[in-house]
Amino acid sequence: MSREYLFVYGTLLSGTGRRSLDRVLRRHLRPLYRARVRGRLYQVGRYPAAVPTDNGREHVQGHVVELRQAQRWLKWLDRYEDHRPDDPERGEYRREIVRSRRLADGRPLDCWIYVYTARPKFAHRIRSGSYRPGRFSRRRASRRPRAPQC
Predict the structure, then answer these.
(1) Angle at the Cα of 118 (from 115 to 124), degrees rounded to 5?
(2) pLDDT tens, position by position, for the chain (150 residues)?
(3) How far, in Å, are 56, 79, 80, 121, 150 from residue 6 at the CA level?
(4) Which residues pair with 115 in a beta bridge?
């Protein structure tokens, strides 16, 4: 059985605020280590959005997690993140493989990530590359799609 890894940088990392969903995530996402990937991070309503970049100086910080029962939970996470495997550009996020680097020693690991599909032209850029929940709570929040019940 091959291992599947996911780079998380937002609500999947910090908690969604919904107890039942957070309990499911804790059970099926095993944290491995802090890491970074190339990209820019934006605040889109109440949650962050990573956008890929070729600039080697721009990074998004988060964690690499191992997925338990990966095939089952990737399908569930796809619905939560509004990724549409049959038409990836129509969803809010797209799941793709990215090269992550462990913060401690730079060791690379290829893993899945959910990247934002829209152009974030009116979103606030998080220059540090690190998401902190509640930081933009006074901003007008967009409505987050409801996660499916397990």
Answers:
(1) 85
(2) 468 999 999 888 767 777 877 887 888 889 999 999 999 999 998 889 999 999 999 999 999 999 988 888 899 899 989 999 899 888 999 999 999 999 999 999 999 999 999 888 888 999 999 997 755 443 333 344 444 444
(3) 21, 15, 14, 26, 20
(4) 94
Side-chain-side CA neighbours of 36 within 13 Å: the count stands at 19
Phi, psi of 31 (to 5 degrees): -65, 135
What is the rounded distance in angstroms from the CA atom of residue 109 to the CA atom of residue 98?
Answer: 8
Structure tokens at 25: 């995530």
Sign of CA dihedral 67, 71, 76, 78: positive
pTM, whole model, 2 decimals? 0.83
From start to end of the chain, where are the E strands? 5-8, 29-38, 40-44, 47-51, 59-67, 93-102, 108-116, 124-126
